[in-house]
Design a protein that fits this description.
alpha/beta; 14% strand; 228 residues; five-stranded mixed sheet; Conserved hypothetical protein from pyrococcus furiosus pfu- 392566-001, ParB domain
Length: 228
């Protein structure tokens, strides 16, 4: 099979050649009102649809789903399209650039400014579960935590920054993802040590040659391990 060659091209395609894909949640009012405008402007979509080529003369929407929905509602026969490649990152980028998807950043490696911007965005979302969370406090404590080793977002609930389990924690997943790095051979960070079971902490204590650790409770084990 010959490789498809239309990547990067601006094509005037028949709407029937285009699969709408999953699309995005769209307001019926905006679609219908937009369709009326499109009919008034000689059915020319000045903002092109972004598509990928899935077979010969067959395409699928990757971005600007609203353009497709309006064109379909207006009864347009053909639309202007830009053809993108099929890479998953290309589709994600297209959806971000067209405002159909919120981008995510890697919290494991994010800078202080990136974390601040993400939290500020979440706090400004109407009805945000994070309303009442102190921005400076939350950002500072998350930034200083050993987040490079987190396997999930639960440790945030132990930072005393106003973020608890449930909707507050879940909303962070809309802007962050994690790529945990390997744990260090010797762990001394008390926040990170808190994530381990007592049995695991005792194994660490034994390995480090600490004395009188067998009867210690978790807080005391963490205290000793963080000081060694």
């Amino acid at each position: 099979m010959k490789p498809l060659t239309n990547v990067g091209s601006l094509l005037y395609l028949y709407l029937e050649e285009i699969d709408p894909g999953d699309g995005a949640e769209l307001s019926d009012f905006i679609v219908q009102a937009g369709a009326q405008l499109l009919r008034q402007d000689n059915q020319r979509n000045w903002v092109p649809l972004i598509v990928k080529e899935i077979s010969k003369k067959q395409y699928q929407v990757m971005g600007n789903s609203l353009v497709y929905a309006i064109a379909e509602a207006a009864g347009v026969e053909r639309v202007w399209c830009i053809v993108a490649d099929e890479q998953p990152i290309t589709e994600e980028l297209c959806r971000v650039l067209t405002g159909e998807q919120v981008p995510k950043i890697n919290l494991s490696l994010a800078s202080h400014d990136e974390i601040y911007a993400a939290f500020q965005y979440l706090l400004n979302v109407p009805g945000s579960p994070l309303k009442g969370v102190k921005l400076a406090v939350a950002v500072s404590r998350v930034d200083e935590a050993p987040r490079q080793y987190w396997k999930n977002f639960t440790p945030i609930t132990k930072l005393k920054c106003g973020i608890t389990k449930g909707k507050k924690l879940d909303t962070l997943k809309s802007v962050f993802y994690l790529e945990p790095q390997p744990l260090p051979e010797v762990i001394t960070d008390p926040v990170l040590l808190e994530e381990f079971k007592v049995s695991e902490l005792k194994k660490m204590a034994k390995k480090r040659g600490l004395s009188d650790y067998t009867k210690l409770k978790k807080p005391d084990l963490i205290k000793q391990l963080s000081q060694s």
